[in-house]
Amino acid sequence: MNKKIFGVICLVLFFAVSVGAEALLDAQAFTDKTTAKLGDIIKYSLVIKKNGNSGEAPRIKPPTFEGFRLGGTYSSSSINIINNAMTSSMQYDFSLMAIKSGQVTIAPAQIQVKNPTTNQYETIETKPITLDITGGKVQAQAAVAIPTLVPAVMQTGSLKEIKMNYSFDMSDMWPYILIVLALGGIAIIVIKYMNDKKKPKQVKTTEIKADYIQVALKRIKAATTILDKTGAKAYYSELYETIRQFITDHYNESFSELTSQEILKKVREKKAAKTDLVLLDTFMKACDLVKFAEYKPEKDELEEIKEHAEQIVKEF
């Protein structure tokens, strides 16, 4: 056989094997702790790793998280291509608050992938996770616990082989990227023009601050009537919303529709003092425990939560 023809055949076979390489899929689930108290925040992570070329993206079905209140979700992904070998990973983080005591099990997460050979969906399940949740009054922490994204840690586990074909051409995306950049530039110019055209009137900051502080203190004092009429849950909810509105007025930025952990994270980004963050964290955890975990506060706790609210307003 001619040496040139033989070399061409070998080159074609090399690329054919690379394109049709089998994709390996691995899914792992884990938590940052296995023991906690009622009201504690637990991070549940789901990591999916694929080695090789892949076609249709996997379908993710997270657990229902019975016994926990979902506070927020975060995700990250990465793709590495070295010597024509592709490795991709995706991580999904869920912020959970414990609202049920005892041994609580988080059910397996399900990942569905389509096998192009059989044209059928195959399901991979992670292992269930059991946590020990104990009851008790929420205590102040030395530092505020804010959920943060961490690099995905892949653990040794069983791998399921799935044959897939993958093709991706970045050049096809350039026209859309240029259109988005152009529209974004136009939007920035229009917004800047409108802001320069109509500037808000200047208002004395000291007058505004004194006003919203007094409003918050009056609302805290009036919450006592809610306790006498409707009970502790409504009382705690009113104090919680009073502090949420106070923080909104304090920073002149909306904090509505945010969970407790999201509020703490946002306040921390505003460079608030550590003592203020610890006080705010303790207050919000106590409120969440009564509102969502059906915790029955004692008489001294009812007075203490009111004092915490007043302290936040006066010292923040």
Layout of helices and strands:
Blueprint: H1 3-19, E1 22-31, E2 35-37, E3 41-51, E4 59-61, E5 68-82, E6 85-98, E7 102-106, E8 110-115, E9 120-125, E10 129-134, E11 160-163, H2 174-197, H3 205-230, H4 232-251, H5 260-269, H6 274-292, H7 299-315
Parallel strand pairs: 2-10
Antiparallel strand pairs: 1-3, 1-11, 3-6, 4-8, 5-6, 7-10, 8-9
Helix pairs in contact: 3-4, 3-7, 4-6, 4-7, 5-6, 6-7
Word description of this protein:
This protein is of the alpha+beta class and 316 residues long. The chain has 2 domains: 21-163, Sandwich (Immunoglobulin-like); 205-315, Four Helix Bundle (Hemerythrin (Met), subunit A) (Up-down Bundle), CATH 1.20.120. The chain is 42% helix and 26% strand. It contains 7 helices and 11 strands. It has helices at residues 3-19, 174-197, 205-230, 232-251, 260-269, 274-292, 299-315; strands at residues 22-31, 35-37, 41-51, 59-61, 68-82, 85-98, 102-106, 110-115, 120-125, 129-134, 160-163. The strands form 3 sheets. The chain has a 5-stranded antiparallel β-sheet with strand order 5-6-3-1-11, covered by helices on one side. Strands 2-10-7 form a 3-stranded mixed β-sheet, with no helix packed on it. Strands 4-8-9 form a 3-stranded antiparallel β-sheet, with no helix packed on it. β5 (68-82) and β6 form a beta hairpin. α4 runs antiparallel to α6. It is flat, with a radius of gyration of 27 Å. The model is unreliable at 11-22 and 138-166 (pLDDT under 50).
